Amino acid sequence: MERIQSRRQFFQSCSLRFGAVALAGTRLGEALTLGQTPAQPSVGGAASGTSKPLVKVEQALPESHTLDEAWPTPAQIPYADRVQYTGVAVAKDGSILALNHGENHSDPALGYLRKLIQKPAVLVLDPKTGKVLRSWGINMFMLPHHISVDLAGNIWIVDGALKNVFKFDTNGSKLLEIKGKECDLQMPSDVAVLKDGSFIVADGSLTRRGVLFDVNGVPQGDWGRRGEEPAQFHTPHALAVDESDTVYVADRENHWIQVLNAAGEWKATWSKVGRPACVRFHSGSVWVLCNFDANKGIVRRFSPAGELLEAFHTRPAKTQGDYEWPHGLAVTDGGNTVYVGFILTSRQILRYRRKTR
Questions:
Q1: Counting beta carbons within 10 angstroms of the beta carbon of residue 182, is it exposed (0 to 12), middle (13 to 18) or buried (19 or more)?
Q2: What is the pLDDT of residue 321?
Q3: Is 137 within 8 Å of 120 (Cβ atoms)?
Q4: What is the CATH number for 158?
Q5: How far apart (Å, rounded) are the C-alpha atoms in residues 240 and 192?
Q6: How many CB atoms lie within 10 A of CB 261?
């Protein structure tokens, strides 16, 4: 079995460039942990312009959710080695969809195996016990990134290595495949489906844009480019849409959420939120998962206007366990239940429950 080291140890063993990134992430994470107030948080306005406070007093917020330590038990995951859970979603029937890298572990410096994953990339879990009900996705993906479910129950997965976007029915049968090489997708990171069935693909780390497709998967145009101004992006890492087709873009390396309409017209910027790895919309709220460095993950719930309503750490207080690099996020039950998938060394899927009031 491979030796798993902490992210901090990993970066220390790499080049100076990666080490500098890790240290910068550590400082940022420490500045944004609950119980402290980040310097000049802002919402609504350009990144470099003036804006109103994002939160009034962040330290007044208690931890809203707590880890459900009884879900799932490790023995219920059918792999001899732990796998990286890069995405989580809730299926139409309430089961939990756990997207994973199988045997194809990846890390920032060493890359990944350039071959299709031979293990099932999607595990369907019982929401009550965490038991694997069924699985699918063998020999189909190379580096799957995020998974989501649209209003009709269709399942969407993007693969950054294959550069493809997939649409499946509720049973995992493929309905549509967008081949990135045919429409100039360079590294798709997430997909969000609009009310009319058209959809937007975040083309993340290279072209840094959103690409609009019609319901049949035909490209209709794109918006965005690299930059630090409104409607510009560094790493559009995840997408969400609300009931009005407002689009929320988690721009990881710019440390903000940008709010746009489906045509890419800018509405607002929620800046200084940390490194947002995932954004999801559920029950009238925008949920943002930030992974800072090492064990400094935070889930926050915002109103559509950018008001911070709740927050909790993905690493429980006073624990020595490995909770590094939270990446996937799913919310259900009106926000009472939150699932988080962890990659790099932690390699687990965890459930958090809202505390009773």
A1: exposed
A2: 82
A3: yes
A4: 2.120.10.30
A5: 6
A6: 14
- Angle at 250 (CA atoms; ends 162, 318), nearest 5 degrees: 105
Q: How many domains does the chain have?
A: 1
Range of the domain at 280: 7-354
Q: Do β-strands 225-226 and 232-233 pair in parallel, antiparallel, or remain unpaired?
A: parallel
- Which stretches of 63-131 are DSSP H helices? none
Which token pair is 225? 């480019």
pLDDT bracket for residue 80 (50, 70, 90) = low
For residue 64, being part of any structural domain is answered with yes
Q: Which of 16, 28, 74 has the alpha carbon at shortest distance from 272?
A: 28
pTM for this entry: 0.84
Identity at 242, one-letter amino acid code: D
| pLDDT tens profile 275-298 | 999 999 999 999 999 986 656 799
For residue 62, being part of any structural domain is answered with yes
The answer to whether residue 172 is domain-embedded is yes
Whether 44 is in a domain gets the answer yes
Span 292-340, pLDDT tens digits: 665 679 999 999 999 999 999 999 888 878 888 899 999 999 999 999 9
Q: Could you give phi then psi for residue 5, rounded to 5 degrees?
A: -110, 160
For 338, phi then psi, to 5°, come to: -130, 135
Q: How far apart are CA 308 and CA 62, in angstroms?
A: 12
Distance CA 337, CA 331 (A): 6
Buried b (16+ CB within 10 A) or exposed e, 215-246: eebeeeebbbeeebebbbbbbbbbbbbbeebb
Sign of the Cα pseudo-torsion (172, 174, 179, 185, in order): negative
Q: Which DSSP letter does residue 345 get?
A: T
